[in-house]
Amino acid sequence: METLRVAVLGAAGRMGRTVCAAVESADGMELAARLDVGDEVADVRGAADVAVDFTVPSATEANVHALLDAGVHAVVGTTGWDGPALDRVREHLAHTPGLGVLVAPNFALGAVLAMAFAAKAAPWFESVEVVELHHPDKVDAPSGTARHTAAGIAAARRAAGRGAMPDATQTGLDGARGADVEGVRVHAVRLRGLVAHEEILLGNPGEQLTLRHDSFDRVSFMPGVLHAVRTVASHPGLTVGLDGYLDL
């Protein structure tokens, strides 16, 4: 089996350093390049097979386009993506056949499973809300994981013909009811000491189901990152969410 050459973008950051260590320890992988602010993404051409991007929202889309131009598959953990940005990547991929891009809001396998469980359960409950809790150094709110979770819940409810969830709120302070993601309320907590945590609250008259996932250390994301690096080449085109690479 040939060694898989991996480049890491954002290598000096907290997640980037953890990814570098995981790649160096993984069987069948070689850390081919560490890139950070000021480095040219195009330099990975011919040096790497796959690149992992844990940079910042303002840079990640341009990085992906540069990787595609360099003929390198991309595994992206940076959040902040929206529909138009994803569409631009899809359009670029149409001209780079055989390359794969994964944009995943969360690489923790437990978090991916919680999202899948939430979508499965959501049509059976009258009310569903999402609470995400992160460290105060996180630059986006709500988290990409929470937005992805809420979008999956909303899609499952629409497919089941469920209507809007009950909410009699008429007055309140701005933000008190959280963000509205396709009709699902999402609340963001920023607290020192946290890493990455999510609760999905599902309620019916007389009962509540709570799904919770906690990442206490960034190493919790590494099995998912390594799985994505190993399998991105077999998933050409754009995939959003690690669940697309798992047999769920």
Automatic annotation (TrEMBL):
Pathway this chain belongs to: Amino-acid biosynthesis; L-lysine biosynthesis via DAP pathway; (S)-tetrahydrodipicolinate from L-aspartate: step 4/4
Sorted UniProt keywords: Amino-acid biosynthesis, Cytoplasm, Diaminopimelate biosynthesis, Lysine biosynthesis, NAD, NADP, Oxidoreductase
Taxonomy, superkingdom: Bacteria
Subcellular location: Cytoplasm
Active-site residues (renumbered): H134, K138
Binding site for (S)-2,3,4,5-tetrahydrodipicolinate: H135, G144, T145
GO molecular function: 4-hydroxy-tetrahydrodipicolinate reductase
Binding site for NAD(+): G10, A11, A12, G13, R14, M15, D36, G77, T78, T79, A104, P105, N106, F107
EC number(s) reported in the record: 1.17.1.8
Residue span(s) of domain Dihydrodipicolinate reductase C-terminal: 110-242
Matches recorded under InterPro entries: DapB_C, DapB_N, DapB_N_CS, DHDPR_bac, NAD(P)-bd_dom_sf
Primary location: cytoplasm
Keyword Phosphoprotein applies: no
Domain Dihydrodipicolinate reductase N-terminal stretches: 5-107
PROSITE patterns: DAPB
Annotated TM spans: none
NCBIfam families, per database record: dapB
Subunit and interaction comment: Homotetramer.
Family: Belongs to the DapB family.
Free-text function comment from the UniProt entry: Catalyzes the conversion of 4-hydroxy-tetrahydrodipicolinate (HTPA) to tetrahydrodipicolinate.
Protein name: 4-hydroxy-tetrahydrodipicolinate reductase
Native source species: Actinotalea lenta
Gene name, Swiss-Prot/TrEMBL: dapB
